[in-house]
Amino acid sequence: MSFHHQLLILTRPIQKVVRQIGCKLGFISSNRLRVLLYHDIPLDQEEELYKQLIWLKKDWCFITPLQFEKMALGEVPIKGNNLLITFDDGMLSNLAVAERILNKLDIKAIFFVINEFIKIKDPLEARHFASEYLIPGSSINDIPKSWGNLQWNDLKNLIKQGHTIGHHTKMHTRLSNCSSKSDLEEEIIISAKEIELKLDIEVKHFAYTFGDINSFSKEALSIAKSKFSFIHSGLRGNNSAFTSPLAIRRDAAATQFPNEYKILHNKLLGAFLDGFADFKYKSSLKKLDSWTK
């Protein structure tokens, strides 16, 4: 764990006092709309995830994707502490988490899936895809054998359970590397329409891959907004009434490296959700917001 993260955990009691005073004085809003970002949840992390969600329920109201949409569009005011859950990449473990944890807690999530990853039926091929596209530069030996992929019937089951399917590009491509408009349209628009046809749904949410500002571009956002009402980043921050639905902030709730996926310590996650690391993303968010205009 980094020194910065250790410091956030150690100063958690002070952070709570600062936030309480800030809310009372009015320079910190008591109304929040934040989005959590998870990926694969290994079997040995399921119990920890369950406990984390129970812990979050003490201070946060888990909202559905539809409720989030209405708040993000300004149709419903943001009141209290509101939290949306999302999962990226379309890992097979997401289905187990939905069935064993989310449904039990009456939590509805958005699952952002990769078009070409869904189509893979062979487990070994899925791991090859993960090593080449999900974690570029890794080898197949770095990829856990449990890293299977959601397939079409799995997505249909998630929809039946009340969850929402979002798009996460065709190949998990870093969109800032796309050199032509046609490549961007293939990654963002055409592949999303294939998902819509296959599942008979409308896909309104898009999450660009890797999440940082250098992995996206003004051109990619311009194309994405022609199809999607909501564009999700991987940049931490609160989504206020002034936040564009085309520049949604999300808080990573775990660290992910080859062979290791670890859910964040509750106190660290609490510090992130309270905004004590948001300043690090200020310049990136300013650039992202400028692209939406």
Feature tags:
41% helix; 15% strand; 10 strands; six-stranded parallel sheet; 293 residues; TIM Barrel; alpha/beta; 12 helices
Secondary-structure map:
Elements (H helix, E strand, L loop, with lengths): L2 H8 L1 H14 L6 E7 L7 H11 L4 E2 L2 H8 L8 E9 L3 H10 L6 E5 L1 H4 L4 H12 L17 H9 L3 E4 L13 H19 L5 E3 L10 H7 L5 E3 L18 E2 L1 E4 L2 E4 L2 H8 L8 H10 L2
Helix proportion range: 40-55%
**SSE string, helices as H and strands as E:** HHEHEHEHEHHHEHEHEEEEHH
How many runs of DSSP E, i.e. beta strands? 10
Shape: globular
* Major β-sheet profile: 6 strands, parallel
The class by helix and strand makeup works out as: alpha/beta
CATH topology: TIM Barrel
**Rg over C-alpha atoms, rounded to the nearest angstrom:** 18 Å
What average pLDDT do the residues reach?
Answer: 95
Beta-strand content estimate = 5-15%
CATH domain class name: Alpha Beta
**CATH-level-4 superfamily name:** Glycoside hydrolase/deacetylase
